[in-house]
## 1
Amino acid sequence: MSTIFTVTNEDLNRLSPSEAVDCFRELLWAEATALGIQKNLIDVPSAIYVDDGGIDAEVQDAPASQGQGIIKPGLTRYQIKTGNFSLSGDSDIREILLNRSGLKPRIKTCLDQESTLVVVLFGSDNPEREDQQVISRFKEKLAEVNPGYREAKIEIWRQNHLIGFLKPFPSLALQISQREQARFQTHRSWSQDSEMRRHFQAGPHQEEFIVALRQPLRETDEAVHIHVQGEPGIGKTRLVLEATRTKDLQPLVIYCSAASIFKDSDLMNEILRDDNPFSAIVVIDECDPGSRTYIWDKLQYRGPRIKLITIYNEYERIPDRCLDAPSLDNEQISGIIQRYGILRDSADRWVGECSGSPRVAHVIGENLGTNPEDILREPGTVNVWDRYITGGG
C-alpha cells in the first residue's frame, strides 16, 4: 500500500548524478545515526566530476553492527551510477572497474584490503536471469587482473534495494519523492520558510541551548521527548532548526507546524505500526499541553528510533525534559537591527524595545530601513503582534 512516504522507481530515475550522491550521503548519515556510528568515518564528496579513483563514497573502520547492511564492518567503498546505466554488458563492468592503465586505484586498494565494493544503481532495477550473474561477471573480469580477486566482496544494489533502505527514514523518503513541502517538511524544506531564512544571531545562551538540545537527540537507548517553551518571538522554532542543522540529525528531521497536523496523521499511524522501523526526529510546533500528552503517550515506548521535539509558547511545569528558549543579549539584538543598514548608535537606542526578542528586532530593523514613520508596522502578512497578545490562539 502506497503512502506519502513511498519511494518509487520513477522517483529514483529522476535523480541527477549530484542529487543521487547527495541522497546516498544522507542515507549513510541516517543509517549511521540510527546505529550510533561516528559520522567522521563517512566520506561522500560533493565534487562528482573530478578524478575519484573509481569511488564516490566510503565508510572507514566501521564497527560491527546489525542495521540494514548499508554499512559493513571495516571498510566499504561505493560507486554510484544513475540514468540507464544497468550493468547489462561487459563495457559497463569495465567502466566501473578499469581506467586506461588498469584497475582504478581506490578500487584496487579496497580489494587488496579484502573490503567490500558496492555498486549502487539509482536508475536500474533489471532482474538477473541467473543467480549472482552480474557479480560472477565482475569476478571474472577481476580475475583477469589478479586471480586472487576471484573471491572479492562485491555487491550490486538496484532500485528495489534502495527503496528498502529508505523505508526507515521518512524524511529522506519525502525529499526524494518531492513531497517535502506538504503537511510534513524535511529539514531542507523547513529551512526555506521565510522566517527561517532570516539572519540567525546567537549569543552564549543560545549556543548553550543548542548543545543541550542536541545531546539527547543523539541518545540511542530509548525514545526521547524534549519540550521547548518560551515567549512568542523569542526564537524557539529557529533554535530547534539550528540545533538539528548537523549532518547526523538533519536527515532524520520531519517538521510540522501544528499538533493538529500530526495527531492521527499518516505519519503517526505509520510510526505506530508494529512492523514499521521508522527512525525520525519529529518536530511539532504549536503543540499545546493536551496534544503533547496524547502524542507522547503514543510514542514513548516505540524505542530509540523516535525522537520527539514539541514547541509551545506557554510556560509550564512538566515532568519531561524541558528547555526554556533564552532571550537574546543586547549585543545580539543590536546586531540584528544593524544588518538592515542601521548605524550602531541608532540600533542601540531600540534594543530595549525588543525585550530580547529576535523577531521584534527584525521587525524594527526592517522598518527603520523602509518604514521609519511606522517602526512597529507588521512585515508583509505576518501577524507578529497578535501572536504576542493571543499566543497560539
## 2
Amino acid sequence: MQNLDDSVPNESPAVNVVDFIVCGTQKGGTSALDAYLREHPDLCMANEKEVHFFDRDSYFSNGRPDYSQYHACFTLERADQLVGEATPIYMYWYDAPRRMWDYNPNLKLILILRNPIERAYSHWNMERIRNAETLPFWDAILLERERCRSSLPLQHRVYSYLDRGFYLQQLRRLQTYFLDSQILVVKNEDLKSNPTAILNRICDFLGVSRLESITHKDVHSRPYIDTMSDREWEYLKHLYEYEIRGLERLLGWDCSDWLAKRG
C-alpha cells in the first residue's frame, strides 16, 4: 500500500486557526514588528504583510465567510507553529473586532500606538508619496471630515489622517469582544529605542521563547519634504490632548513626550 505521506512530500501542514494578529495602528511600527516576528522559528507570519481579511466587507456580505481563503495566506513550516499576521487597519475598522471574535474568540491582539500627532503627518506623507494625496497637510486635515463623507457609512481608507489617531474608541471596541489578557499594547517609541525589551514582552505574551539575537530594523521609513509647521502642530496638540490624557489613564502610560514639540 502506498504511503500517503510519501505521495505529498512537499505539502505543508494545514492552518487550522490564526492565533494572533498585529491589528494596529497604521504608521505605528507594524511593518518593523512584522519583520522581527518573522525571525522567530516558532511563529508563522502570513506570506505577505497586511492580509486585509477582516476589513473587507465583501468577504462577509453573504453570512459566514470562507475562512479557507484566509488560511491560504499562510504557509506553515511545522504544525506546532503559532500563526499570526499584521494588518493595522483592523484596529480602526468598525466591524473588524466582531469579525475577528467570531472567527476566533481566543485570538491574541498586539497593538503598537504612536504619538497621534506624528502618526497623522506620517500617514499624510505616505499617501502623498503614493500619489493618493495632492493637498498640503494643513488643507487635508481641515477638509478631512468633508472628504471622508464620500465613504459613509464606512471609514475612509486614505483621508482618515486625524480620525485614526483617536485610539480610545478603537481600544474600547476591541475590549468589547476581547479580554484585557488577550490584548497587548506597546509604544512605537519603545519598539524603536529598545526593541529587545518590547519583543521579549511580545514573546512572553504569545507564550513562545524569547529571541536570542535582535538586529534593529527600520522598515518603510519614508522621506519627508518638510516638517510640520508650528500652526499644524499646535492644532493637532489641541485636538489630541484630551485623548492622550485619557490614554495615559487607561494604560498607565506617561505620554508627556507626545505633547512636547520636537525641535
